[in-house]
């Protein structure tokens, strides 16, 4: 069983326009509306991979009802904690060359709602193989994001726990020694984690080898079209990916997390297979118009072309 957590879901609306010009009226050539939030994107890709999963999330208002209907329609088993506030919307305007995003902050979660979420999590699972916590945390009444995330992690200390959150918050969580087993920073996030303004493969390798923040931790450092450098079970690998034509890279990191989660559950002792699966899911997502979507057959073709070298 794989569990995902999305504390700050959203309705993701993408407007594709011919050319974005500030101050002008635009009529989209295409509008795409999705149940979004990083953890829900992970859940959608896991569903396409055939995983046994459940998705936990906060949902409120008409937006929350719309997301819940969408998740039910596509078949994601969802345990929603209903809140008084309204789930947010996030807008992306894409003109083919650049994407402009407007991201709402999300509602405040009351202390009772936080308690209900944790209670729902505790009573709905007997055994968890892999758990993924992804994305931002909305305002929490009488609480901090760090304590909220930590409470979820500590209630699933026996599972393989993946944490994909803002780098500054990630540092705080890792320093508490909470049961985190894997992180997936991109290049900019990794710079924050190691306090570097620029990176080379050698710097990444040395940091993964020696930095105390990464002790006993699997780390997938994704580098866009340059592939990834991965620390997995205390071995470090360089992965090179084939060239692709990207349609929409939003959500590719979430698809990669889904690949890590599924790979860890199915192929725990096969490091290179896990790396290829994770990166191929991210690549396949980038070729799709819809966020949190892959083509499993295409992902397998990509996986066969990924070069993985033990450093």
From TrEMBL:
It comes from the Bacteria. It catalyses: D-tagatofuranose 6-phosphate + ATP = D-tagatofuranose 1,6-bisphosphate + ADP + H(+). GO terms for molecular function: kinase activity. Keywords: ATP-binding, Kinase, Lactose metabolism, Nucleotide-binding, Transferase. Pfam families: PfkB. Its EC number is 2.7.1.144. Pathway: Carbohydrate metabolism; D-tagatose 6-phosphate degradation; D-glyceraldehyde 3-phosphate and glycerone phosphate from D-tagatose 6-phosphate: step 1/2. InterPro entries: Carboh/pur_kinase_PfkB_CS, PfkB_dom, Tagatose/fructose_Pkinase. Residues 8-296 form the Carbohydrate kinase PfkB domain. This is Tagatose-6-phosphate kinase. It comes from Mammaliicoccus lentus.
């Amino acid at each position: 069983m794989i569990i995902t957590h999305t504390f700050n879901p959203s309705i993701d609306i993408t407007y594709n326009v011919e050319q974005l010009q500030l101050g002008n009226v635009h009529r989209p050539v295409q509008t795409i509306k999705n149940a979004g939030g990083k953890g829900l994107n992970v859940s959608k890709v896991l569903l396409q991979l055939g995983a046994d999963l459940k998705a936990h999330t906060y949902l409120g208002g008409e937006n929350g009802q719309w997301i819940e209907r969408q998740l039910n329609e596509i078949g994601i088993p969802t345990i929603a904690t209903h809140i008084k506030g309204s789930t947010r919307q996030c807008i992306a305007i894409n003109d083919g060359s650049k994407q402009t995003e407007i991201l709402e902050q999300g509602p405040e979660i009351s202390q009772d709602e936080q308690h209900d979420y944790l209670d729902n999590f505790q009573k709905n699972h007997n055994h968890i193989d892999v758990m993924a916590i992804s994305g931002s945390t909305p305002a929490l009444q009488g609480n901090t994001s760090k304590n909220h995330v930590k409470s979820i992690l500590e209630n699933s200390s026996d599972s393989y726990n993946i944490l994909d959150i803002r780098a500054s918050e990630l540092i705080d969580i890792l320093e508490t020694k909470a049961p985190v087993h894997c992180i997936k920073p991109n290049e900019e996030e990794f710079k924050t984690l190691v306090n570097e303004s620029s990176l080379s493969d050698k710097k990444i390798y040395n940091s993964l080898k020696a930095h105390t923040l990464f002790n006993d931790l699997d780390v997938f450092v994704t580098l866009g079209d340059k592939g990834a450098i991965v620390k997995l079970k205390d071995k470090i690998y360089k992965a090179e990916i084939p060239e692709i034509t990207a349609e929409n890279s939003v959500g590719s990191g979430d698809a990669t997390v889904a690949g890590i989660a599924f790979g860890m559950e199915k192929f725990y002792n096969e490091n290179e297979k896990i790396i290829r699966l994770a990166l191929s899911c991210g690549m396949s997502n980038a070729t799709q118009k819809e966020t949190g979507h892959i083509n499993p057959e295409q992902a397998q073709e990509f996986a066969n072309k990924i070069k993985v070298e033990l450093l």
